[in-house]
Amino acid sequence: MARLINKDTTVCMSLAARPSNFGTRFHNFLYQALDMDYLYKAFTTTDLVAAIGGVRALGIRGCAVSMPFKEACIAMVDALDASAKAIDSVNTIVNTEGRLTAYNTDYIAITKLLAQHRVPTDMVFALSGSGGMAKAVACALKDAGFKNGFIVARNEAAGRRLADLYGFTWRPDMDQVQADLLINVTPIGMAGGLDASTLAFAEAAIDGAKVVFDVVALPAETPLIRYARTHGKQVITGAEVFAIQAVEQFVLYTGIRPDDDLFQQAAQFARG
């Protein structure tokens, strides 16, 4: 039986341009399984300053931060954990008695998945995107030992800045780029968007790759992942990223780490 919400219930939340049910299902599943007096709710906002102010003023314990707020919220917190400071990108805010500390659990998730899937570090990669999540992915690639790769971004200033930061090469598009590992860190393929049915990379680029990684978590099978899987490519999905980074957030919010069996149950439930 689920707990009843009361005046002492601890509230956690998320902020995203296009909220999904993944986080709400994942966290609330764990709260119920562990008999915790917590509640998790997803939100969007057109006033980020007011939203983060509300986290502080209302005593919201934790706030997950998704695109496009990962960098913009930095000025609104009191402290940056090393995980967020290293890449100037935030995906988690923890409120401790009115003091907001920002973290980045995306980096942890990317690092774990590259290792779990045994992606060879001598592969040439092409990373499409230049925002906050792209920073986490690029940093994880660099730290994992990848040396040859391209940051593919139409925004030259942002793309060059990210490429230079980690010693990679900027390209405005995939013309003349051949990569073994393709990574989509853009909203292309995300449910509810204008590009929901669009491939994040051209078919020729996917056909020439060995591993395809899409950080978009909704839907679990994006057009990119579906095409890559049907053409025999090794795939890493955004749903995998979301589950791992979400459990790290859960630990930051509650101080409790679920065992692996419970984690897998929550991840399966979240995927619906």
Features:
272 residues; alpha/beta; six-stranded mixed sheet; Rossmann fold; six-stranded parallel sheet
Structure overview:
The chain is α/β, with parallel strands linked by helices. It has 2 domains: 10-104 and 240-271, 3-Layer(aba) Sandwich (Rossmann fold); 107-236, NAD(P)-binding Rossmann-like Domain (Rossmann fold, 3-Layer(aba) Sandwich). 38% of the residues lie in helices and 18% in strands. It contains 10 helices and 12 strands. The chain has helices spanning 22-33, 48-57, 82-85, 106-116, 132-144, 156-166, 203-207, 223-230, 238-254, 260-271; strands spanning 10-15, 38-43, 62-65, 79-80, 92-96, 99-103, 125-128, 149-152, 169-171, 181-184, 211-214, 234-236. A 6-stranded mixed sheet has the order 2-1-3-5-6-4, with helices on both faces. The chain has a 6-stranded parallel sheet with strand order 9-8-7-10-11-12, with helices on both faces. The longest helix is centred in the C-terminal third of the chain and has 17 residues, at 238-254.
